[in-house]
């Protein structure tokens, strides 16, 4: 099982980005979370098949219709990831 952490910047808070990310991740069979960060970014952590994580990364670059993604930073993640997908 692969894991990754993403920090998404731009207009990504208050536009349904976290709920959209959850829907995309669940559709791809990924576990993890999407949380708002102070300063306006969103933290996304996922675990699952590497190809599914890559597919989510490609989707995160575009986001939902009302979002504008200016930056997507990806890092390895090695802490435990709980089953399911949380937003907060």
UniProtKB/TrEMBL annotation:
Q: Which reaction does it catalyse?
A: an acyl phosphate + H2O = a carboxylate + phosphate + H(+)
Molecular function terms in GO for this entry? acylphosphatase activity
Provide the E.C. number(s) assigned to this enzyme: 3.6.1.7
Instruction: Kindly name one Pfam family recorded for this protein.
Output: Acylphosphatase
* InterPro entries for the chain: Acylphosphatase, Acylphosphatase-like_dom, Acylphosphatase-like_dom_sf, Acylphosphatase_CS
Q: Which keywords does this chain's UniProt record carry?
A: Hydrolase
Q: Which domain of life is it from?
A: Bacteria
List residues of the Acylphosphatase-like domain.
3-88
Per its UniProt record, what PROSITE patterns does this chain match?
Answer: ACYLPHOSPHATASE_1, ACYLPHOSPHATASE_3
Q: What class of enzyme is it?
A: hydrolase
Show the active-site residues: 18, 36
Entry similarity comment: Belongs to the acylphosphatase family.
From the Swiss-Prot or TrEMBL record, give the protein name.
Answer: acylphosphatase
What are the leading ranks of the lineage?
Bacteria, Pseudomonadati, Pseudomonadota, Gammaproteobacteria, Lysobacterales
